[in-house]
């Protein structure tokens, strides 16, 4: 599964991931055990007094099984009702990072296309995938290539605003 090289600090700072989301990302190899331990450290440094999170902070490479066991336990213990699922959250994280770094990447829309395919063609992304035809009556032939690209980036930004708003309502405590 393609996922851009998003720095752990960026992911931690998003503030809306929970342990179920971390487990989903870990199982799909979007993040490593170091991320999991770092996430625990992030939680503890932000006031968490959870014993499992505190214990996990001290774990390392030789403790992978224990890290995985604690990760599963923490994910199972979450009681929040998910308004936005883990897959959608990770998609948002990757797309948000790409959007914020679009000038640092050779072909950001090509990477969007990879994510679109690898995340099973989410309908909500269609309006900013280059090869998808517009479904809202927009006729690209009536506009310049630059105007069409501007529209795609605007649609991408609108998607991020919409999902970001939804995530703001389901933030982790």
Provide the descriptors you would attach to this structure in a database record.
0% strand; 2 domains; single chain; disordered C terminus; 173 residues
Q: Could you give the distance between the termini? A: 29 Å
Compute the average pLDDT.
92
The major β-sheet equals: none
Structural class: mainly alpha
Write up this protein.
With 173 residues, the chain is mainly α. It folds into 2 domains: 19-77, no CATH class; 86-168, no CATH class. 58% of the residues lie in helices and 0% in strands. The chain is built from 8 helices and no strands. Helix 3 (33-45) packs across helix 4 (51-57). The radius of gyration is 18 Å and the shape is elongated. The protein starts with 7 loop residues before the first helix and ends in a 5-residue tail after the last helix. The relative contact order is 0.14.
Brief digest:
With 173 residues, this protein is mainly alpha-helical.
Q: How does the SSE layout of this entry go?
A:
Blueprint (H helix, E strand, L loop, with lengths): L7 H7 L4 H9 L5 H13 L5 H7 L6 H14 L8 H15 L7 H11 L26 H24 L5
Helix pairs in contact: 2-5, 2-6, 3-4, 6-7, 6-8
